[in-house]
Structure formats: C-alpha cells, structure tokens
Amino acid sequence: MAAATSVPKPAAKAPKRDATATRARLLKVAVAEFATKGYSGARMDAVASRAKVNIRMVYHYFGGKEALYIEVLEHTLAKLRTDELKLDFSAVMPIDGIMQLFDFIDGHFAAHPELMKLLSSENLNKARFMQKSILIPAMATPVLKLLQNLLQRGVADGAIARGIAPLHLYVTLVSLAYFHKSNAHTLSRIFETDLLALAWQADHKAQTRRMLLQFLTPPPAHARPTPRAKQTLAAGVPA
Amino acid sequence: MAAATSVPKPAAKAPKRDATATRARLLKVAVAEFATKGYSGARMDAVASRAKVNIRMVYHYFGGKEALYIEVLEHTLAKLRTDELKLDFSAVMPIDGIMQLFDFIDGHFAAHPELMKLLSSENLNKARFMQKSILIPAMATPVLKLLQNLLQRGVADGAIARGIAPLHLYVTLVSLAYFHKSNAHTLSRIFETDLLALAWQADHKAQTRRMLLQFLTPPPAHARPTPRAKQTLAAGVPA
Amino acid sequence: MAAATSVPKPAAKAPKRDATATRARLLKVAVAEFATKGYSGARMDAVASRAKVNIRMVYHYFGGKEALYIEVLEHTLAKLRTDELKLDFSAVMPIDGIMQLFDFIDGHFAAHPELMKLLSSENLNKARFMQKSILIPAMATPVLKLLQNLLQRGVADGAIARGIAPLHLYVTLVSLAYFHKSNAHTLSRIFETDLLALAWQADHKAQTRRMLLQFLTPPPAHARPTPRAKQTLAAGVPA
Amino acid sequence: MAAATSVPKPAAKAPKRDATATRARLLKVAVAEFATKGYSGARMDAVASRAKVNIRMVYHYFGGKEALYIEVLEHTLAKLRTDELKLDFSAVMPIDGIMQLFDFIDGHFAAHPELMKLLSSENLNKARFMQKSILIPAMATPVLKLLQNLLQRGVADGAIARGIAPLHLYVTLVSLAYFHKSNAHTLSRIFETDLLALAWQADHKAQTRRMLLQFLTPPPAHARPTPRAKQTLAAGVPA
DNA sequence: GATGAATGAGTGTTCATTCAT
DNA sequence: AATGAATGAACACTCATTCAT
Q1: Does the CA dihedral C24-C29-C116-C138 come out positive or negative?
Q2: Are C222 and D222 in contact (CB under 8 A)?
Q3: A195 and B171 in contact (C-beta within 8 Å)?
C-alpha cells in the first residue's frame, strides 16, 4: 500500500515483493481473524488466503500461531497506548478532565471493537498469551498517572470528592464504557431490546455520565453520610 | 442422584448403568469444558473422558457439539433464573432492595464464573448459539419487573431519584459487578495489581456501592443541576 | 400385521409381543434399506427404528448385519422362485411360451425393483454374500428346464430356429428386460430422455419383442446365411 | 509423467514433489477404490495410503469424498467419450458399422470394468452424484448421431429394416454387451456356470451378434408379418 | 524473498455390536 | 421376549506446521 509512495529504487519499479507491506497486510488480517474467531477458532489458512499470500509467509514473518496472536495483541494494545498519549488535561478543570477521559475510553472501544474482543478472548484463557508478551508490560499506560493527577487537583480545589482511588475509578470508567458493548449480543437477546441501537447507546451513556458526575462531585457540607445511609451501605446480602 | 432413593442392595449400592446420572455428569463436565476453553477450544473427547464414559454417549445424550453447548448455556442460565426467582424485596425499602439486587448479581457472578465465561464467549461470536436456543428467550427474567417495581416505589416515596430506567440501571449494575471480574486477568497484568485479591475486590465493591447509592438518592432540593453542571455534562470529546 | 388374523390363543388377545410379526416387519424394512442404500450404505439403526423396535431385536432375530443381508437376499430371490414355479407353458405353443416367459421376467423386475437393486449391489462385490448363503444354491431355478423344454419342442416342430442354447437365451431375455430399467437413471441423464417414462418403456419393450421373435423364428429355407452375411458376422473390431 | 521430459540429473531422476503426478496417481487409485467398493464402501484413507501420499493431499486436490467421486465418474466417462470420438463408420456399410459399434461397446466395457461398476453403483442411488456433475451433461456422446446416420443410410439403400429408433437400438446394444458382464457373478452362482469364462463369453457374443444381425436385416418381401406372427407378438402376459 | 507440496496429530462424528436388566 | 445403556473401532475431514525448490 504505502509501497507505492516509497522512493523508487534502481531495479525495482513495481514493488511486488514488498516485505513490510506484506507483513502489515498479514497483521491487519490477523487482527480481524483473531478478534472475530478467538484464538482457537482462528485459522492460519484463513489469514494467509485473506491476505493473498502463501501460508508459508505467515510462518516466515511471525513464526507461528501463538507468536502471531501475541503480536496481534501487542499491536492492538499499542494503538490504545498511542492514543492515550495524546491526551492532555492540564488545561481543563479536573472533573471535566475525568469526564473527557471517560468519553475517550468509550470512544476508543466503540471505534475499536477488535480490541474489546481480543481482551475478552484473552481473559477467557486467563491472559495466557498476554503473560508471554514481553512488550505489553513495557507499554506502561499513562492513564493512571493522568487520573491520579486530575483527582489530586480536584480534591485540592474541592471540586472532586475525597477517597476515590485512581485504579478503582479507572476500572469503573472502563466497566461502564465496555460491558454494555461487549455483552450487547446476549443482553439484547435476553431482554429483547437492541442494545446496539444508537438511541439506546446514547441514552445509556447519558445516564452513565450523570452517575459519574454525581459520584465525583463532593457532597454538600450538610449532607455527610448519616447513620441511616451507612446502615444501607452495609445492608447487602452475603456473597 | 436417583441412586439415593433406590432400595439399598447387599453388594451393589452404586448403580452403574444410570442414565440420568450419566447425563448429569456429562453436562457438568461440559459446562466446565466450554467455560474454560470456549466453543472451538472445547474438546468432545475431553468431556467424555473426564465424565468417564465413552464418547459415543455424549452423542447419544446430546446429539453433537453444538447441541451440547446450547444445553450447557441453557443449564447455566437456568440456574441464574432459578436464583432470581427467590428474590423478594417486597418487605425492604426500595433503595435497599436495589442495593441487595446488586449484591445478589455480584454474588451470583462471583459464585458462578462459568456463567460469566460462557456469556463472554457467546458475545465473541455474536450470541450465535444463544440465538439457536428455543428455551432461553422463553426463560423470561423476572429481574426487570422487580427493578421497575422498586424504582416506582422509591420514586413515589421520594427515596429514589426520578428518571432512572430499569433496563439501563440493570445493565449498569451488571457492568459494575461483572467487568472487573471478567477482565481481571488482563487488567491485573497491565496495571501490575492483583484485581482478584479479595482486598481489592472488597475495596472496589465498597466504592461501587457508594457510587450507586449516590446515583439512586435524589439530590437535595437546593442542589438541582446548575448551568455549570449542565455544561460539564456536555463537555465530552467527540467519539 | 397378519397376527391380527391369527387364531386367538388362550391368554394373548392383543399380541404386542408377536415374534413372527416383528421378525417379518424387520425383514421387510431391511429389504428396503439394503435395496436403496446397498450393503455398506445400509444402517442397522435405520432398520430398527423404521420397524419401530429396539435395535437389539435385529441382533436377536438375525445375528448381525451380514446375516441379515443374506436373509434379505434369500427372501427376495425366493419370491422370484415362487413366482417362477407358477409358470406353466405346457399348453401354449413354444414360441409363445418363450415370449410369455420374457414378459414374466420383465414384469417381475418391474414389480420388484428391490430384487434388481440387490442383484446389482451383489455383483458390485462379486456376489460375496450370495456365496455365503447356503439356501440360494439350493433354490434351483426351474426356469432353465422350462426354457430347454420349450426350445426342444419348438425346434422339433420347426417353429423355432436351431442352435439356441437355453442359458444363453435366458441371459439374453433378462438382459433385455433388466438393463434399461436398472440403468435408467444414468442413461436418462446422459441422453436427456426419461427412460422411466411409461411411453418409452412400452416402445422399448415392443422393439425388444420384435427382435426376440425374429431371433427365435427360423429363417426361410432360401435365406440361409450367405458368405456375405458370414463375413459381416466376423467383421467386428477386436476386443 | 512430466518426469520423462525433465533434464535427467545424476542421482535424482524421479521427482518426488510432482503435483500433477500425485494428483493423477490419486485419481487412478480412487477409480479403483470406488469401482470395487461403491461410494459408501470406499475409504478415503485407503485411497491415500494406496497412492502413498498423506490423506491431507486428497482433500487438498479434490476437496472431499463426494467431489473426488464425481471426478472419478467424470474421468471414467470421459475415457469412453474420447474413444467414441475415434469411431468413423463413413467408409463401411451401414449394417457393418452398427455391428462394429456393438463390438466397440462390448470391447470398451470388457476393457473397463470400472466404468461398468461405477455406472451400476450410480444407478443404485438414482444417479445422485452424476446429477451434481456439471461436466457430464456437457460431454455429449456422439454415438447417437453416429447410429442415426448409419440407420438412415441403411434404410435408404434397403440393407436395414425400417422403424428402428437410434436410442432404442443403442440401449439394446449396451444391454446385450453390459448385462452378462455386470451380473456375471450372481448368474454364475445361480446357474452354476462360469459366465466369465472366455468360452462362454465368446459363445454369448456370437449368439448376440446373430440376433442383432437378424434384427437389423430387413425381412424378405414375401415374409412380411402374417396374422399368426402378429398374434404372437401380442400374446404376452400382462405386466 | 517467496512458494507449492506434503504431513502427523488430532477432531467431530458414526458404525455395528454387546452388556446388564 | 424385549430394552436402554454402553462401547471400541473407524471414518471423513481439519489444523498448524515443515520440506524441497
């Protein structure tokens, strides 16, 4: 693809044998294959034939199914990291920053269902392959730092409630952006409502944002937790 | 099972050729197999050998891999429905009822990771097999009615905020109970924190309950949304 | 079936457990199964379920697949022998007798396609199972004797040409009655003509009878084979 | 095959990885397997092992059992068509041409028992696979045109009787060449005579040729069908 | 760098048959 | 006499992977 725009070399006008292009094509196809079929459902043949290369090349470039899958995982996660690095909330108010982060998360998963599927797939086998990646732990996510910074600033100026831990908040943000998308098919079937309909998604997002805002906003001085509320807080059934 | 009710004979207590027992054993093993390996990763051989019967019996009792999987799905979902039917919040205050429902959901998924895995697995292939089940759509979940009732009662007596839709709330409850469990492995790896540790889970649940309570509780009269808050609500980044 | 008309016995009014009836039903179903599917295509399960008895009974009554097949073969051939024994050409003119025998053969195969299929099937594996039958060689066909008698009488009174051997004639008769039926499907496809259409079959039979009559009729005295005809007779291409 | 044309190397004459040779070998073995065992009796393993290749190659080259069988059918029929195209009776007398055609048919089936077996096998399941072939209906047989031409010429010069239809004659020719071969095993067993013995076959062919010649030859002017003969013609028993 | 040919080890499924009641 | 439960051996077909060029 990009090969066409590359600098023409002495004896290779039409670069049919373009290694990097072929490799990129294979990886792209592999992402789709693993995302839609899962690890054991994915077929090496399918990857090769859809990329229109001989299956031998898949082995040549990636070594094997497992290595290919790991690279797919790394590639897809790297895209998220790259996008995350562009985030800069230094100029916005903390609570707005957090809400914008939520929107970013929501937007990224909406735009990249393959990431969602690969993560779900990975969790089904206890992140077995992610463990084997040497790149992934190195790709430290900047998001936690970002969140910690926003929370600190917010708490400091009284705009954000105290006692919210960055990781817990992050997991909550992702839960609320991820689950209703990743599990839309079964939920839609069970409740006979199309959760993938744009209207439903918009409504859900609006409600979620309201909940988050309330959660982040510190309670008014006279509205501190009363014994009554505390009791309610602990009234859960035992797990 | 039925063995326990049969007349005990001198030297043959355990009935070898017990169809219902064999079938039940197979189904139990199959639930584990499909939950841990997914549909395409699951092996019929493995099911048979772990249930210590000839593989032919799997086909005799269930017909085939797909039919077995569907039955596994139905069986596991039926267990949830059965438990849901035991819920009765008619005697508790609405807000407590909703929190207890959350605890129930959280507890059920914690106690039945196989359900979580099967649902995730199903979503990976767009609920393809769930669509084929004729039982599942018939197993109407009572939970939405329950929630609607609680919300109506709560709104009526002023204990619960207006404008919360049952299905949106239910999806939110499940999101918050489900995601951090189902995706614990990858999150643990990425953030180098053990999300499956009991302490982490407890902390997370406490924060989640706080958020939900705040969300459900109606705002004090003088704290209606201000122009400022409204603006924040719309300050999201475009998807 | 026939059981209903049998003499009522002391303690068995409704004969549900009627051994001979069950056996007969199984054999009938087996004939159809083997005729339509061939030996290796036939399924013991199919026989049992179509006869609405447990598969175990098939083994109980017949011993196994091979033994059942052989009995099917014997049963079907026995029907032919029984019908052949009813033939009596002592009162008709020899040439008419032979033509009537041809009509009988043609009629029997038309009425019993299962016999035709079983014979074809048997020939495909070199009559392997027929060899194993101890009944079949004992069921001497009376037809050759019949034919020999007719030929002798015909030759004696000058109505039938000399030099026609009974077995060769019989094989010819069967060829002409059998082949266009047994191979109708492929021929119909290849020549895009429905050989199973009644009109085609009638035309073909008429032509065949004309040929046979001419063959059996002795040539007029002055039309003995000439050198020219003799030469033609030998003008075949080498096999 | 192609090996013969390749440059002979010191110590490696036989090319091991020759696709066309492997494919041809597989097809040849498959013809034998399907001809001797029938469709359901044939084993894919047997084909592979007898061709000394991995079973995977059978699927690589042919797709599956059904596709392989259809190709076997097409290949075997194509051989017949190829041979038929070599026939040229423009220089011989019509009646000789027809007799030579009979000899050709007889010779071809004698030389290719696999064709006979495949056709019989096909008819047992109502030409189910032949229907699926898109090549077979396209392989129009030239034989009917040939026969029509010979008949017309023969009738025109008075050497052949009127009223003989090409397709009926062709089916008759094949019946007389085919049946006693295809059903030799059962007939031999029933009549305790070896129909496959060369002497028997020769005798039978001679008689058959006599019958055909008589049939084709027009009757002498004074020997037109008499009332007596007509009556005989209709004296058949009802079917 | 690139490719078609080839393969060992499964993988779901089916078959005829026997065991225990 | 009759039956449901259970099985070993095949069988068509597939998968990830390597060999030879």
Answers
A1: negative
A2: no
A3: yes
Distance in angstroms (rounded) separating the CA atoms of residues C69 and A127: 57
The helix (run of H) or strand (run of E) holding residue C150 is helix C143-156
List the alpha helices (DSSP H) in chain A.
19-41, 44-50, 55-62, 65-85, 94-111, 113-124, 128-132, 143-156, 166-182, 184-191, 198-216, 227-233
* Interatomic CA–C1' length for residue C64 and nucleotide F11, angstroms: 21
Chain D residue whose CA is closest to C42: D40
Q: Is the CB of C41 under 7 A from strand E?
A: no
Instruction: Name which of C121, C119, C92 is nearest C104 in CA terms.
Output: C92
Query: Long-range contacts made by residues A41-47, C-beta under 8 angstroms, separation at least 24?
Result: A41/B38, A41/B39, A41/B40, A41/B41, A41/B125, A42/A69, A44/A68
d(CA D117, CA D123): 10
Neighbour subunits, A (≥3 Cβ pairs < 8 A): B
Distance CA A179, CA A175 (A): 6
Could you tell me where the DSSP H helices lie in D42-165? Answer: 44-50, 55-62, 65-84, 94-111, 113-124, 128-132, 143-156
Q: What are the tokens at B101?
A: 């429902």
Rounded to an integer, the average pLDDT of C151-174 is 97
Place of tokens 């033509």: C99
Q: What residue ranges define each of the domains in chain A, with the CATH number in brackets?
A: 18-63 (1.10.10.60), 77-218 (1.10.357.10)
Task: Judge if the beta carbon of A65 is closer than 7 A to nucleic acid strand F.
Answer: yes
End-to-end CA distance of chain D: 55
- Give the pTM: 0.82
- Cβ C157 to strand E below 7 Å: no
- Residue C116: predicted pLDDT: 97
3-state secondary structure of A12: strand
The pLDDT value recorded for residue D219 is 82
Nearest to A110, CA basis, from D60, B237, C7, D96: B237
Query: Which among A121, A126, A204 is the nearest to B168, CB-wise?
Result: A204
Three-class DSSP category at D194: coil
Q: Which residue is nearest to nucleotide E9 (CA to C1')?
A: D56
What's the number of CA atoms in the CB half-sphere (13 Å) around residue D181?
24
CA-closest candidate to residue C110, choices C207, C210, C205, C212: C205
Phi, psi of A214 (to 5 degrees): -60, -40
Our CA-based measurement puts residue D13 at a distance from the nearest CA of chain C, in whole angstroms, of 37
Helix (H) or strand (E) holding D192: none
Tokens at residue B83, please? 């438990």
How far is residue C166's CA from residue B166's CA, in Å, rounded to a whole number? Answer: 92
The answer to whether the CB of C78 falls within 8 A of the CB of D75 is: no
Nearest chain C residue to D95 by CA distance is: C232
pLDDT, tens digit, 9 for 90 and up, residues D185-204: 999 999 999 999 999 999 99
Q: Are B181 and B110 in contact (CB under 8 A)?
A: yes
For B61-83, what is each residue's pLDDT tens digit?
999 999 999 999 999 999 999 99
pLDDT tens-place string over residues D94-151: 999 999 999 999 999 999 999 999 999 999 889 999 999 989 988 878 999 999 999 9
Query: Is the model more confident about D14 or about D48?
Result: D48
The amino acid present at C154, given as its one-letter code, is G
Q: DSSP letter at C235?
A: -
CA atoms within 13 A on the CB side of A73: 28
Cβ contact, residue pair B239, A195, below 8 Å: no
What amino acid is encoded at D230 in this protein? Answer: K
Find, in chain D, the residue whose alpha carbon is nearest to that of C111: D239
Chains B and A touch (3+ CB pairs under 8 A): yes
Q: Is the separation of the CB atoms in C38 and C121 below 8 Å? A: yes
